[in-house]
Specification:
mainly beta; Rossmann fold; 5-stranded antiparallel sheet; 22 strands; globular
C-alpha cells in the first residue's frame, strides 16, 4: 500500500556544522538536497524466538489522542510491531477514551506520537497545549509507580511536546526541536528544522549503551537505525541510545538553541515499582521504505525495521523489560 503523509515529505540536505564560541554555524558547501517522494509499507517480517511461557501481559494502546494510531497512513507502519507483540504473548487492547479509564489491569501503556494541540485565539494569538488532561497525567504516574510500564514514543517538533506534562513528572528533560550531530548525515528544511539520521548506532561509536538491560538482551542488539528525532536527557545511566557529545538541538527553522554532551534519543529507567522507556524517533520500530530523490536519482531506504539492523530485537527486549509479568 503506497501513500503520502505530510510528516514524511521532508527534504534532506547533507551539510556540515562548525562551532564558534559555542554557537553553531552552518556550512552549506556541497550540500545535496534530497526529498521523500514516496513511502510504502515493507513486507519485512522479523523472526525471533518467542517466549515459551504464557505471561499474559496486557498492552494498552492510546487511540484516544492524536497518536499515529489515529492516522491510518501512519498506523500502517506499526502492523509489524503489533504482530511481534502478539506472537510474543502480549494481548493488545485499544484505549479510545481518556487514558485514566483504561489503566486497570494494564501491564504496558503505549503512547506513540503525541503532538501538542494548536490553539488559535480570536485576536490572532496562538499557543500550544498538551492534549493530556491533569487526570490522565496523575493516573499514568500513579500507574507506573504501582508497577506499570510505559513506552512513550515521541518525535521531533511538533510531534512530541504534547507529552511534556508526563515528562516533567518523570524528571525527563525534552528539547522540543531537532537534534543534529556532525557524525551523521542530515537534512535541512527552513520550514521544519535541521535533523540527523542516525543510521548504524552502535557500541563502537558510543551511541548504543549495551550496559542497559533493554540493549543487553536477551535478544542481540548491535546496530540500531534512528531517523531524525529530538533530544531528551535524564540520568546518564538511563541512556539506551546516547547521542554523540556536542550534539546540537535546533528549534524550528535553523536556530541552534543548545549543544550538549548528555543528549539521548532513547532512555529507560525505573520509577517506583514500574518502568519507563522514552524514545524520540516515533518511526524506529515501524516498517516503511522511503524513496528519496535529489531530482535526478532515487534511492529506497528501509526505515526502520529491517534485516540490516537490530531495531526489532530492541523493541522486543523493551516490551519484555517493561512488563512486570516477564522475568
Amino acid at each position: 500500500m503506497k501513500y503520502f503523509s505530510k510528516s514524511l515529505m521532508m527534504p534532506l540536505v547533507l551539510f556540515a556544522v562548525t562551532k564558534t564560541n559555542g554557537i553553531a554555524q552552518e556550512a552549506r558547501e556541497n550540500s545535496i538536497k534530497r526529498e521523500v517522494i514516496d513511502a510504502v509499507v515493507s513486507d519485512y517480517v522479523h523472526e525471533f524466538p518467542v517466549l515459551s511461557t504464557q505471561h499474559g501481559s496486557r498492552v494498552v494502546i492510546d487511540r484516544f489522542h492524536e497518536t499515529i494510531y489515529s492516522l491510518p497512513d501512519e498506523e500502517n507502519g506499526t502492523l509489524q510491531m503489533q504482530d511481534m507483540m502478539r506472537r510474543d504473548g502480549f494481548t493488545l487492547v485499544d484505549a479510545t477514551s481518556s487514558l485514566d479509564q483504561h489503566l486497570q489491569g494494564a501491564d504496558v501503556l503505549i503512547i506513540h506520537g503525541l503532538p501538542n494541540d494548536k490553539v488559535e485565539l480570536p485576536n490572532g494569538g496562538v499557543f500550544w497545549k498538551s492534549p493530556l488532561s491533569s487526570e490522565e497525567v496523575d493516573a499514568i504516574i500513579r500507574y507506573i509507580d504501582a508497577g506499570g510500564g510505559l513506552y512513550l514514543s515521541l518525535s521531533h517538533w511538533p510531534g512530541g511536546g504534547g507529552a511534556l506534562p508526563l515528562l516533567e513528572a518523570l524528571n525527563v528533560k525534552l528539547r522540543d526541536g531537532y537534534v543534529w550531530s556532525k557524525e551523521y548525515p542530515s537534512y535541512v528544511d527552513p520550514a521544519s528544522g535541521i535533523c540527523s539520521h542516525y543510521f548504524g548506532m552502535s557500541e563502537a561509536d558510543g551511541t548504543l549503551n549495551k550496559g542497559h538491560p533493554v540493549a543487553a538482551g536477551p535478544l542481540t542488539v548491535n546496530k540500531v537505525d534512528f531517523l531524525c528525532g529530538t533530544a531528551i536527557f535524564r540520568e546518564k545511566k538511563d541512556a539506551i541510545l546516547p547521542f554523540p557529545a556536542g550534539s546540537i538541538n535546533y528549534t524550528t527553522g535553523e536556530i541552534a538553541a543548545e549543544a550538549s554532551d548528555e543528549y539521548a534519543g532513547m532512555i529507560g529507567f525505573s520509577y517506583g515499582k514500574g518502568k519507563v522507556v522514552v524514545a524520540t524517533d516515533q518511526g524506529m520500530f515501524r516498517n516503511f521504505i522511503f524513496t528519496f530523490t535529489d531530482g535526478e536519482n532515487t534511492e529506497d531506504i528501509a526505515v526502520t525495521l529491517s534485516a540490516d539492523n537490530d531495531n526489532a530485537n530492541l523493541f522486543i527486549n523493551m516490551m519484555r523489560w517493561l512488563s512486570a509479568k516477564i522475568e
